[in-house]
Amino acid sequence: MTEEQPRAGGAIAALDKQPVWNRHHVLDLDDFTPSEIEAVMETTDAMMEVLGREVPRVPALRGKTVVTLFYEASTRTRVSFELAAKALGADVINIGASGSSVQKGESLYDTVRTLQAVGAQMLVMRHGSSGAPYLVARHVEMNVVNGGDGWHAHPTQGLLDIYTMRSHLGDLRGRRVVIVGDIAHSRVARSNIWGLTTLGAEVVVCAPPTLLPYGMRPNGSPLEEPLALPRVDVETDLDRAVEGADVLMALRLQLERMTSGLLPSLREYARLYQLNEERLARARPGALVMHPGPMNGGVEISPAVARSLQSAIEEQVTNGVAVRMAILYLLARGKP
Amino acid sequence: MTGSLALRGGRVIDPANGLDAVVDVLIAEGRIAAVGPDAGKDATQTIDASGLVVCPGFVDIHTHLREPGFEHKETIATGTVAAARGGFTTVCAMPNTEPAADTAAAIEFVLSTAQAEGAVRVLPIGCVTKGRQGKELAELAELAAAGAVAFSDDGSPVADAHLMRRALEYASMSGPDGRSLPVIDHCEDPSLSGGVMHEGWVATRLGLPGVPAAAEEAMVARDIALAELTGARLHLAHLSTAGSVELVRRARAGGLPVTAEVTPHHLCLSHEAVLLGTGETPGGLAYDTDAKVNPPLRTPEDAAACLAGLLDGAIDCIATDHAPHAVEDKLCEFDQAAFGISGLETALALCLSLVHDGRMELPALIEKLTVGPVRALGLDRRVEALGTLSVGAPGDVTLIDPKAEWTVEPERFASKGRNTPLAGRKLRGRVMATVYGGRVSFSQEAVSARRR
Fold it and tell me: How many CB pairs under 8 A join A and B?
């Protein structure tokens, strides 16, 4: 159901005409311009073409070493970065918190300085502490790609979500994107809010007040701070939120939210906030259903909706590889 | 102590005596001997103080000296040199050391170490509860007899309301004159806390768990109720929210014996310091661990309310909450970094920005750094006329050049704690010399040249 425009054989070569990419790190989408997002989208198109080949490999990163440093469990993000780096011909080293010197109590600073000293050029990192990649970027020369930091940001997820939406909806200006779930603790929500508002989409977040961060309240006064998270519409009633939506994105509910007093029960949460067929029917016809995974089927999304024709959930995963190829490619090309 | 020292021709500001005039200050036998025109003309030693402000040595009632137990962060020796460089001649040492200062022996250790190695006077504060565990009262009377000037579990509140009530009651008989010694509370409701910065738009943007203003205000309100119940002396440490200031203002208007302090950083900085930091920040977000402090830096409106409270008397004084840490305590993920700012060496200059901006008068600022803190804790019952230039007062004097510009270079701090959110910042106003007990304990080169 994608409507990609496959490029001619020299898709990668065609990218050389693009404006120079000046970014050394990808930490969040908060400082991406619309044309930078555009550059990623175009590059992703080219990478989709590469992935469609019989031998999905190009030598763009040959001789480079990419390290994935994951302090938190991850399947799709880590694997798709690994596949992306390998498809570009890079050597890939995967490090998890267990089985490395991290387990011996080595600090993040010492760990990344060591990785740089042994010769890694690019570092993809996932960390439970918001801001950890910023600390790293301040102290290394390597390219740093944020693969998710705490509650803060997950820029490649935001980009793959945007790529997926655009492949179905085209220009996102004025499109209504509803993000439902644990907004307060979600890096996916934050990065999507930055990317989507930059492209002119209308973002609605929907959650009970206990899962909304400071400053996001229904009918709350808008924050006047120029550096605050962009203004979004806030809705606590999902039935109202889904009216006229072009995209419905459900977030994973962390089960520990129940024990910390934020929610009374899974049952009540599912009743109020599950993306189900009834609610999908209230959205715009053909509205796209998305989820960053991993899903709690029957909690934030009903299995029927997750598997419906309107679901782009598997496509998100596929697009994730191409988007991450695009990011690694652009970073490698941008600076020597 | 031999001979005499005169500080000649400076603008002498002595708020306790309502003095603001160009006169001499003469110190003899370690004490203030005379203040007046030409009072210093026959001194054995003189410092030409013309163009400088001469005032009583500053008093910091909230200092973490870290010794014993955390000597890699600070020692009594390094912390008191940092104090002298910051113009402070008296510091009150907080008891959250290892072991905590919850016994007479621990208080005596601080006093004797300071006597042997300290550059300025150290007055120890004892714990409220044994081991700062919040479970049983420490031996408050023995701590007081050993020299403790107040009691605090600082770093933590006395969370249990019943225990706090009993602490207030018991402390009220423990002073050197049988009168009340203050209990200093660090106001933070632990069940509302747990965050790492102020709960506000910056925390939302950075994805960091916040500490709401209500976490402090709920505890301030509880403590005020307990002060009313017991009639005992309560001092509230490092107020940071507009709501707290208003609660204290109302309590004092009702005649309650409640005093309070505010730090230079809560007066002059806001939570935006965590976002922006200083210097180059890839991605534009600093996550500046040097701006991580407890209570957290709050909004500019909260800072303005703290200043208003300081000016209208709801808050008695400025205290640094000097909290030095080692590099590795701050060179880490934001949520794992230690709380605290190394504040002794920047306190004056940071506060002077309020004077330069026309928001506070210089004599008022000096009052809040000298006699203000002394009266808040009743320290003049231990050290007569402390914080003043009255004849007979300790020969503690600070010379400042309110206009001298300098750049904060933490690597040049005397403190082992280089954790300041002001690194690289240009500040105006500098301590030029500090005299403690009639001896010059610190002086800038420019002042050394003026010595005769």
Answer: 94
